[in-house]
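Dear colleague,

Following up on Tuesday's group meeting, I ran the structure prediction for the two-component complex that the binding team flagged. I've pasted the input sequences exactly as they went in, so you can double-check that nothing got truncated or mislabelled along the way. The structure tokens for the whole assembly follow below. Feel free to forward this to whoever is handling the docking comparison.

Inputs:
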Amino acid sequence: MDERLNIDALEDLAIQLRAAAARERRPKRLSWGPRRGVVVSLAVLAVAAPALAVTQPWSPMLSRPGTDNPVKTDASPVTASAREALAVLRRPQTPEDRAKTAPLLKAVGAGNQVDGVQTASIRLLTDGVALVPAKTVRTGPFATSDDELCLTNGTSVTCGPASSVRTTGITSVEASRTTTSYTGLVPDGVARVRFTANTGTAAEAAVTSNFYSLSVPEVAPPRMIDAPDAPDGSNGPSRIPGPPTPVGGTIEWLDANGRIVGPEHPNR
Amino acid sequence: MLRRRAPDTVLQRSVADPAAFEGFYRAHAESVLLFLTRRTLDPHLALDLASETFAEAFAQRKRFRGSTEEEAGGWLFRIARNELFQYARRGKVERTATERLGLTIPRFSEDDLERVEHLASLGALREAARALFVDLPDAQREAVHLRVIEELSYPDVALRLGVTETTARARVSRGLRQLGERMATPTGELSWMND
């Protein structure tokens, strides 16, 4: 095959174009008579899932070459409890899952924490966010956790145990200068997620594909941190404001009737 | 007897074998990205336009009528120029082809960004553009600033300047033309507004 391009983003595009070419190569119609063709198409529509499944092997790039260790893949399926809890894992993997998550997956290898990625169970949750199941995640210097579900947006990765996704979900929190964002994975039956900040500000978001994303226009007061030495040796302030800190609060899961159905251990 | 002629170029081969398009992409991806970066001074915008360029080339590859790799390259760069032209006219990137193909615009890593800026000699180009921009007549400079840097629509530019939309368009157009003429190098760098 041709050599890798020097610019990773262009390599990402190459992978997506390859997937698009593979989609185009697939035969578009059967050569049966027109009447019969209609009948067959309708039958397929009635029986099959709305998206076409893909079954060919897939080896997406899961780390940054030269920066992270290579991440191994794992052919085993996700745990039965995760499949039971998440409809997004029970549906087949589609070409769109592969094409749209491929550019995000290099973040998985950052920090050499995630290993044994179960590529057949990677799903697109929404544009720009992928669900990445993994056999092992390093949770401390000498600790690992098995069978984890990770979320990545292409720059950061958040993981949690698959065994507790039904009761606690997986929540990712980020803060910009003015906004706190909560995104996460929730089990079947959760229709909406409500976040109430400690200040009283509330935000609510609908759940699609077991995923939600919401934000509130608030952050916590910044923590003060030790200032690094100035490069020129000059004296500056010894304590400076640290990076933005997310505002804390309570997350509630609501079912289709607006009843609170979780999580079991609310994030605070 | 008439014989169908075998395809001469990778692009033509990709009509029957779509997978071959990847070879065409790899041969031109970097040069198209740098071409667009030098003309927009913005690597992110250039990547967006490059993605649309290749998606459009993939969709339209049956229409290529040349017979050499050089002609195929020229055909591709005409699409890239057209994407630039459309961007300049509409003030936004049309993602019609990328969306039709189901492509997501990739993101640059920090390393990528440094590499692209270095390869495109962006630092020097930005300095040169800044110096020339400052020299534009006041009315044109303000109009170009609102339209290109603040990305306002023409009606909004007109509102901010207190002139008609036609006048706003004329000032932006004259300003960009002047910048393009002053920046034009033997290789055509930054002359994209006039392409």
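Residues 27-50 of chain A have pLDDT under 50 and may be disordered.

Cheers,
M.
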